[in-house]
Design goal:
single chain, alpha/beta, two-stranded antiparallel sheet, 8% strand
Length: 596
């Protein structure tokens, strides 16, 4: 058996609470709580929640002998004198100590178990306090106050569950485990503590899994070469996933922390992440811990190859322009990646392409693509596009407009342009009305003035418009009041009429809708087409991401004949909707070369 002081490398294991009582020499374990740690701060509620969780665990109807209740990691570093410096997890470790102490208090002295010791650098009198905790003694300092409240909570909890004390004790000692994470000699415990506690950054599944693989490789006689290889390849995978263009093709999660390789581990472990494990923050780690238990380095290497192969499958989709857009669309819609990977394993590439198209059709249009002939497909898409309404089907419209952008990009086989999923997922997107909506009139006086000011510069400088411009100038001089309110409605209608908007119908249909980022959309408050067009061109000119089809709409690229560039007519709208229908029809019939 290794002496604790011989431990050099980072290591990881699952240890039952019983194993925390002694060190590797069989002596009571000594835990050192350094001054950089804050004192004990668990509330009575947190203490009783832990006890409730253990009790609920042992009362489960489907409990199996191999099941266990797992606590979050205990991060330690072995000191030169054999003590364990607690870098993270001292709150849990102290609470466990108080519960074990309660069990001892129930027994006569000869029958009490030897407990580990807790040495607080800032509280040398802790042992004296725990010998005789009292309300008076708890007033000496804030740590004693919280310790005393925790002790009371434990006593009160067990008073209510007197008949279950032995079952709880057995479950705590034998069926409750901690993730025991030992820092290497080269790790600085203060740096590790800072990372784990500034902003409460916990150890992640991938950091724990990394330690599993490296420990397994290093345990072999010649394992250090294998460990270095895994470490190098690990860094390569993480580096690739750090590219936002790749990551946001795969993920909709913008809140993820600094490590992204955890997604690959979740995919590999997905079939085993069921029941309680699925709800566990460290469920993925537990799956790999069970997989790698008692395995040789060679078997561990095969497990690492499965991780790499999963990554390579995703990378292949990313590199393939057609697959990139279709898979990216499905992932954006919430389709599970592990389901897509399962489909890929069962099919040839051409068959996979057809299956992905069927899923995309179901997401955007509805129905089974496989049951439609060419004419039925065109009619189904047309019916969907012509009947969909902004009022009740906004998410469905958003889906169709997104797919329209992707299909448009794929139509040009000579182009290498790709949709910017990273930019798209970085914004919140509104469904924008191309021309203004009569019912969305500005209400506040300052908003009304801003609306007229925006329109004024785009009113054609013809003689018959001079009176309208004069009226606008007059309104802009008005102070807020009844007169301004009376003047507004009639003037508003005249401006809409000048821009040929507001009374032509179809305002909530697909022909008058496009995608626009929320901040831009809401900055111009239902402006007329000419104002919106200018704002979009300014965004495009500055390099701000604007979806291709949104740009095309305001450049009137879908209009057969462009008569007035600053007006959006019913004919423009009809030709735009027809472009959507035809583009989606071609996409599902051919999909840029993805036909089966």
């Amino acid at each position: 058996m290794k002496n604790p002081t011989d431990m050099k490398e980072t290591s990881i294991s699952l240890r039952p609470v019983k194993a925390l009582l002694t060190d590797d020499t069989g002596e009571p374990a000594r835990y050192w709580i350094p001054a950089y740690q804050r004192g004990y701060r668990w509330t009575p509620l947190q203490v009783t929640q832990l006890l409730d969780d253990i009790r609920d665990f042992i009362r489960r109807s489907n409990l199996q002998p191999e099941h266990y209740y797992c606590l979050q990691p205990l991060v330690i570093k072995v000191m030169s004198d054999g003590r364990f410096e607690v870098v993270d997890g001292q709150q849990r470790l102290t609470t466990l100590f108080l519960i074990l102490r309660h069990f001892n208090e129930r027994l006569a002295e000869p029958y009490r178990s030897k407990l580990y010791s807790l040495d607080y650098e800032t509280r040398p009198s802790l042992d004296e306090f725990l010998e005789d905790p009292s309300e008076d003694a708890s007033s000496e300092n804030i740590d004693f106050f919280h310790l005393y409240r925790a002790i009371q909570a434990i006593e009160q909890w067990f008073a209510k569950h007197e008949s279950e004390v032995e079952d709880i004790k057995s479950a705590l000692l034998n069926k409750t485990k901690v993730i025991w994470f030992t820092l290497s000699d080269s790790d600085n415990p203060v740096d590790a503590f800072t990372r784990l506690n500034m902003g409460k950054i916990p150890l992640t599944n991938d950091e724990l899994i990394r330690a599993l693989f490296l420990r397994l490789a290093a345990d072999e006689d010649n394992g250090h070469g294998l460990a270095l290889r895994i470490a190098h390849e690990w860094d390569q995978l993480e580096k690739a996933l750090q590219q936002d263009a790749f990551w946001y093709f795969l993920s909709n999660d913008r809140a993820l922390g600094h490590n992204r390789i955890g997604l690959i581990f979740e995919l590999v472990a997905s079939n085993e992440l069921t029941g309680q494990l699925k709800q566990d923050d460290y469920g993925t780690f537990h799956v790999f811990s069970e997989r790698l238990k008692s395995q040789s380095a060679e078997q561990g290497w095969q497990g690492w190859l499965e991780v790499k192969q999963t990554f390579m499958a995703l990378e292949e989709w990313y590199e393939d322009r057609e697959l990139f857009h279709v898979v990216g669309f499905l992932i954006h819609q919430g389709v599970a990646i592990n389901g897509l990977l399962e489909s890929a394993r069962k099919r040839r590439k051409g068959d996979l392409a057809r299956e992905l198209l069927c899923q995309a059709f179901k997401e955007a249009i509805g129905g089974d693509l496989r049951k439609l002939d060419e004419q039925e497909l065109r009619e189904t898409i047309r019916d969907r596009c012509e009947s969909i309404s902004y009022v009740k089907q906004r998410e469905a419209i958003r889906t169709i407009l997104l797919l329209f952008n992707l299909a448009t990009l794929l139509e040009n086989q000579r182009s290498n342009m790709r949709f910017q999923f990273d930019s798209f997922k970085g914004e919140k997107w509104d469904i924008e009305h191309v021309r203004s909506i009569e019912r969305h009139r500005p209400v506040r006086h300052n908003e009304r003035k801003a609306w007229f000011e925006g329109c004024r510069g785009y009113i054609p400088s013809r003689e018959d418009n001079q009176e309208l411009v004069t009226s606008i100038d007059g309104f802009l001089e008005l102070a807020q009041g009844e007169e301004a309110g009376t003047e507004f409605d009639s003037l508003y209608d005249r401006v809409l009429a000048c821009f040929r908007e507001g009374d032509e119908g179809g305002e909530d249909g697909l022909s008058n809708l496009t995608l626009l980022d929320r901040s831009t959309n809401r900055s111009y408050k239902n402006a007329v087409f000419a104002v919106k067009r200018q704002r979009l061109l300014e965004l495009d000119k500055s390099g701000t991401f604007v979806p291709l089809c949104t740009r095309n709409v305001f450049l009137k690229c879908y209009s057969v004949q462009v008569k007035d560039i600053i007006f959006w007519s019913m004919q423009d709208a009809e030709e735009y909707e027809e472009a959507i229908i035809k583009t989606l029809s071609r996409f599902f019939l051919q999909s840029g070369g993805m036909e089966a």
